[in-house]
């Protein structure tokens, strides 16, 4: 029998008083929820192909998937949640605007993806390729790919609100 999954919900610790301007808060939050942060590799066609092969692998070329964006995104969820929780309080109290919060989220996510990129070790390189390459670091020679990792704030696509 599968275990029940525990869920925890945290609320922002904000007190609403007579001085609180709710329409302003709603407008600020609306500005926040209509945009999102995309973290990924941005570059030319060749760089996109290399990023795709690293992320998803290539059966035809015998290259296993070495997901650095997807696994980095998973590792970034907790720190991003922390930034969002603190940021929403700052947003509602007027000490931060939506652009700054989205930028902070992007910076934390990008930092985690880059850290994951640097630490990626599985699956290992084939012995033949490792010998030709001269080291066993999987993505080390892909400095251009590493530098192409960006965080971009974009409008949300329709359907989700």
Brief overview:
With 161 residues, the chain is mainly alpha-helical.
Report on this structure.
- By secondary structure, the chain is mainly alpha-helical.
- It has one domain (23-154).
- 52% of the residues lie in helices and 9% in strands.
- It is built from 6 helices and 2 strands.
- The protein has helices at 22-33, 45-56, 69-93, 98-119, 127-133, 143-147, and strands at 35-41, 149-155.
- Strands 1-2 form a two-stranded antiparallel sheet.
- The mean pLDDT is 81.
Attribute tags:
161 residues; mainly alpha
What is the number of independent domains? Answer: 1
The tally of strands reads 2
Average predicted local confidence, pLDDT = 81
Main sheet strand line-up: 1-2
Distance between the termini: 35 Å
Tertiary shape: elongated
- Helix and strand sequence: HEHHHHHE
Beta-strand residue fraction: 5-15%
Going by helix content, strand content and strand pairing, the class is mainly alpha
The number of helical segments is: 6
As residue ranges, the low-confidence spans are: none
Rg of Cα set:
20 Å
Largest sheet: 2 strands, antiparallel
Work out the helicity level: 40-55%
């Amino acid at each position: 029998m599968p275990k029940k999954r525990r869920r925890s919900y945290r609320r922002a610790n904000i007190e609403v008083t007579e001085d609180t301007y709710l329409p302003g808060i709603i407008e600020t939050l609306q500005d926040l929820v209509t945009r999102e942060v995309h973290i990924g590799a941005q570059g030319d066609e060749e760089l996109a192909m290399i990023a795709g092969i690293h992320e998803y692998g290539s059966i035809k070329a015998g290259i296993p998937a070495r997901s650095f964006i997807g696994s980095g995104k998973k590792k970034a969820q907790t720190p991003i949640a922390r930034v969002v929780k603190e940021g929403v309080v700052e947003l509602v109290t007027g000490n931060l605007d939506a652009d700054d919060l989205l930028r902070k989220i992007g910076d934390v996510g990008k930092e985690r993806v880059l850290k994951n990129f640097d630490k990626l070790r599985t699956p290992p390189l084939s012995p033949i390729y490792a010998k030709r390459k001269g080291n066993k670091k999987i993505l080390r020679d892909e400095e251009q790919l590493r530098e192409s990792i960006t965080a971009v704030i974009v409008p949300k696509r329709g359907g989700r609100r």
